[in-house]
Amino acid sequence: MTNEQRHTDLSTDWVLAALPPLLFGLVLSLLVAVLVPLRSVVWGAATPLPRPVVGQTVWLPAAMLGLLLVVLIGGALVGLWRRCAAWSHTWSTAAVVSVAMALSIMADDVPYLISPFVDVLIMVALVLALAAVTLVAARRSMTEAALVALGFVSIFSLVAVFSAVASPMLRMDIALIMAPAGLAFAALITAFLRWQSGARWIVLALTAVLAGALIWTYAVGVASALSADIALKFVRVLGVIAAVGFLAPLALGWLLSLRRRPALGTA
User: Suppose 179 and one of 20, 29, 160, 215 were both cysteines; which one would form an S-S bond, judging by CB atoms 3.0 to 4.6 Å apart?
Assistant: First the structure.
């Protein structure tokens, strides 16, 4: 068995690779349900937070988010310990994007977390971590590069949907989409690893469409609370980030796989 075959053999580990978006979507949907009971959710408009929730310490949602981060980072570290196992690429991308989300939440009401310089260093470190995972995966096979792309765009688009809970949007109905969306991403990752040949390209296309739909749904919430112009700006920024995070691993994997035939279909 070659080095490439050893690292991309996911016949038994495909469940692990598909878990991050499923966990992310379910946990954050549950977090929203903790903040606002499902019976109180307004569908199609902003959901006012109950007064007790606004005034009390939201220790339970914070604990849930913290536990999710610990699980994702732990999974990524286990994968790193196992020489960057192929299944761990989705965990690594999920961990990096989730940490960035958590830092963004913490910095919501303050000008900076530690200092402007340190904050920039943290973000650069996160980008470099993503770049390192991408490079390792792309050097091994197109399949592993695609896993990085799938892992990033699934979690990033789920984060965009979760952002709809922020004031003044308060679109809890949009945020609850994370549970079925996370399940859909997990199913797509599973299909990608279980299917062969051209069917994998169909999975990649469907993943891109789903991620784009989620980002657009978030923009709808922005437009309803603020304005269509602001929503369009958000769509452009988020769309560019999602496209780069999705296409860059695929492009690098393709470039490095030119000497390897076949690449995507039979890895």
Answer: 29
43 in any annotated domain: yes
Number of structural domains (the chain) is 1
> Which domain, by its residues, includes 71?
3-256
pLDDT tens string, the chain, 267 residues long: the values are: 344 444 445 556 788 999 999 999 999 999 888 888 888 888 888 887 765 554 444 778 888 889 999 999 999 999 989 888 889 999 999 999 999 998 888 877 677 777 788 888 999 999 999 999 999 999 998 999 999 999 999 999 999 999 888 878 888 889 999 999 999 999 999 999 988 778 899 999 999 999 999 999 999 888 888 888 888 998 999 999 999 999 999 999 999 888 665 545 544
DSSP 3-state of 84: coil
Task: Report d(CA 176, CA 147) in Å as an integer.
Answer: 25
Contact 185, 210 (CB under 8 A): yes
Cis before residue 111, ω within 30 degrees of 0?
Answer: no
Q: Is residue 242 in some structural domain?
A: yes
pTM above 0.70, yes or no: yes
